[in-house]
Amino acid sequence: MKHQPPPPPLPLSQPPLMGGAAAGGVASAISSINGSSNNNNNNSETVKCRPPIYPKPKTPSFDKDRDYIGFATLPEQVHRKSVKRGFEFTLMVVGESGLGKSTLINSLFLGDLYKNRQMPNVEERIEKTTKVEKKTMDIEERGVRLRLTVVDTPGFGDAINCEDSWRVCTQYIDEQFRQYFTDESGLNRRNIQDNRVHCCLYFVPPWGHSLRQMDLDLIRRLHRKVNIVLVIGKADCLNKQEVRKLKERILQDLEDNHIQLYQFPECDSDEDDDFKQQDRELKASIPFAVVGSNTILEVAGKKVRGRQYPWGVVNVEDPEHSDFIKLRTFLISTHMQDLKDTTQDVHYENFRAQCISQISQHALRERGKLKRDSISSTNGFDAAISETDRLLLQKDEEIRRMQDMLTQMQEKLKQTHLMEMKKNDSVIDV
User: What is the C-alpha separation between 383 and 372, in angstroms, rounded?
Assistant: First the structure.
């Protein structure tokens, strides 16, 4: 009988390549097995496993990141800081009662700002005066917080005599500019609250043929202080042809009275075609003919925001029925920041320049008054002092003229230097 060789030993299994977490889990499982086997039978053999083979860490490719500096993340830093701080927007709504202002604001921002509103009766409207009411609402959407302030003007156009209805609106806008200028000129400029009006929605009634004299008086006094956007309220009273004719008459009246509304910024050349088409449609829709509604109706199995009539349903969000979607897109989605920038760079800067000019003129008047007082107090030397002042003024004028000449010479030297540099750059060394 032939002697058979012993069976070969079982091959040790090599663990696959794994990360630290997986390797730790396998090691703990092996240790638990070994511990249990030692407790049950001290004479049993301990299973030995080959240590795991870990992948080598990848060395970073410095050749690829050699030209990378890092300032490309600046937009992300600004975005994080802006989202953390939040945004503010102030909207003024002006128009007579019954044009759907409150309903439109609630439809735009999906809220209810006018829960406890009380409508005045006929006796109260006879001596009704325009006043200002502020309502603030905090809105959050996808982690972005917006503090919305709606400035309403109840009583505008409701009284019998509406000559001074515009005065309250202009005073409020100037007060907010003045308060911001005072805070900006103070010592603590870190936490300045911006209450300036960034946009004014002026509601035009649909039953008129064009703008009334009261409308023109207000718009003429506000168009250099705030961004004005005209809105035709309750546009479902008109058909498409009537809406088109009313818009044409309103634009013609604005042109005849040299009134300038908010100007849309021009699209950049790198914008896509869809955005350019949307911008053209928004510009062609001014003034916006809108219909507001807070009622949800079911039409053809779909829930829509609209108004129920005996002849059918007006879908507020249908572009064929209303410009509500275009107004919301313009006001919130595409041009909210530009409205704020225009308020800061144009309207507030004009107000700030006027304030600085008035302060300078007041300082000059006070200085001249002190000078006259000092001259009148010195008796017997009036003629000598006046002659001395005249000589000093002549010398100041000569110095100012010489400074202007030096500035012009420096500009000429700078231009010649730039021309020489361009010539030198155009020479090619062989």
Answer: 13
Instruction: Pull the structure tokens for residue 100.
Output: 């759907």
From 235, 205, 240, 211, select the one nearest 223 (Cα to Cα). Answer: 211
Closest CA to 201 of 264, 286, 118: 286
Q: How far is Cα of residue 343 from the mean position of the Cα atoms in its chain? A: 10
- Cβ 230 vs Cβ 261: under 8 Å: yes
Helix (H) or strand (E) holding 204: strand 199-204
322 within 8 A of 314, measured Cβ to Cβ: yes
Taking the C-alpha atoms of residue 53 and residue 15, their distance in angstroms, rounded to an integer, is 7
Q: For residue range 324-379, what is the model confidence (pLDDT) as tens digits?
A: 899 999 988 888 999 999 999 999 999 998 888 888 887 777 777 777 766 666 55
pTM of the predicted structure, to 2 decimals: 0.66
Q: What is the pLDDT of residues 135-185, one digit of tens each?
A: 888 888 888 888 889 988 887 776 666 667 788 889 999 999 999 998 888
The type of residue at 348 is Y
Beta strands (DSSP E) in 55-97 are 87-94
Residue 268's beta-bridge partner residues?
Answer: none
Q: What is the CA radius of gyration of the chain?
A: 38
Residue with tokens 């010539």: 423
Take residue 174 and report the two structure tokens written for it.
Answer: 């100037």
Q: Which residues contact 269 (CB under 8 A, 6 or more apart)?
A: none
Percentage of the chain surpassing pLDDT 90? 13
Query: In angstroms, rounded to a whole number, what is the distance separating the alpha carbons of residues 145 and 83?
Result: 7
Name the helix (H) or strand (E) containing 212: none
Integer Cα distance of 275 and 265 in angstroms: 13
Count of other CB atoms within 10 angstroms of residue 302: 8
- Assign 82 to helix, strand or coil: helix
Say how far apart CA 234 and CA 243 lie, in whole Å. Answer: 11
Nearest alpha-carbon partner for 99 in 25, 152, 46: 152
Backbone angles phi, psi at 184, to 5 degrees: -70, -30
From residue 380, alpha-carbon distances to 102, 368, 392 in Å are 73, 20, 20
Whole-angstrom Cα distance, residue 293 to residue 53?
Answer: 68
Distance CA 183, CA 194 (A): 10
Q: How far apart are CA 7 and CA 141, in angstroms?
A: 72
β-bridge partners, 314: 307
Residue 184: which residues within 8 A CB-CB, separation 6 or more?
Answer: 192
